[in-house]
Design brief:
Layout (H helix, E strand, L loop, with lengths): L1 E6 L7 E7 L2 E5 L13 H4 L5 E3 L14 H14 L5 E6 L5 H11 L3 E2 L2 H9 L7 E2 L7 E5 L5 H12 L14 E5 L8
Parallel strand pairs: 3-4, 5-8, 5-9, 6-7
Antiparallel strand pairs: 1-2, 2-3
Helix pairs in contact: 2-3
């Protein structure tokens, strides 16, 4: 049996599997993001597949997503609209969105504050860490777990500061805050 791994264009390390052997030629996609460049990957186009197992979470004609480039531009545009806010909370999952975070840092000219554990992950993935910092004071762009970036949490960050008590974010005054949750799961057809 031969196993070939192909970039799934999903998140760092995500791959699709091509299995070849006595059972034929099989493509197993798992989570992936289709891109037209996949039409030119020799391992995909070399021979037809006998069986394809495809993740079809959004395999619905009504589910039309922007390209990755368009999505990145939209997120960056939205961040730029609120760049003067005291706190911009970017809700993400444990894995993925590194390309988006890098794009935000490049477009804004500001580093993204990440926890030390995330910084270690970025280094392991060989991602340029000059766009990131663990120093919460030097930037208003902070990543947080997606599940905690809620309207209630944004309000809480502001209310904690309305009494001049120390901020939940690096002992800074937060008068204006916004939460941005970057996820395809919010897609509404």
């Amino acid at each position: 049996m031969t196993v070939t791994l192909i970039d799934a264009n999903h998140c760092p390390g995500a791959v699709m599997f091509i299995l070849e052997g006595y059972f034929g030629r099989i493509l197993y996609t798992g989570d992936f993001r289709f891109d037209a460049s996949m039409h030119f990957v020799p391992a995909i186009t070399a021979h037809p597949f006998d069986t394809v197992f495809i993740d079809n979470t959004y395999c619905n004609p009504e589910a039309v997503f922007p390209s990755r480039k368009e999505a990145l531009q939209t997120v960056c545009d939205e961040v730029l609209k609120v760049l003067d806010y005291d706190l911009i909370m970017i809700g993400i999952d444990q894995l993925g969105k590194e390309e988006m975070l890098t794009a935000i840092a490049e477009k804004t000219g500001r580093p993204i504050c990440v926890p030390p554990s995330r910084m270690r992950w970025l280094k392991l993935c060989d991602i340029d860490t000059t766009k990131f910092t663990c120093d919460a004071i030097c930037t208003n762009l902070h990543i947080m777990a997606r599940r905690v970036v809620t309207p209630q949490r944004v309000s809480q960050c502001i209310l904690e500061n309305s009494t001049e008590e120390s901020s939940a974010v690096a002992n800074t005054t937060v008068r204006r805050a916004v939460g941005i949750v970057a996820t395809g799961w919010a897609f509404d057809t």
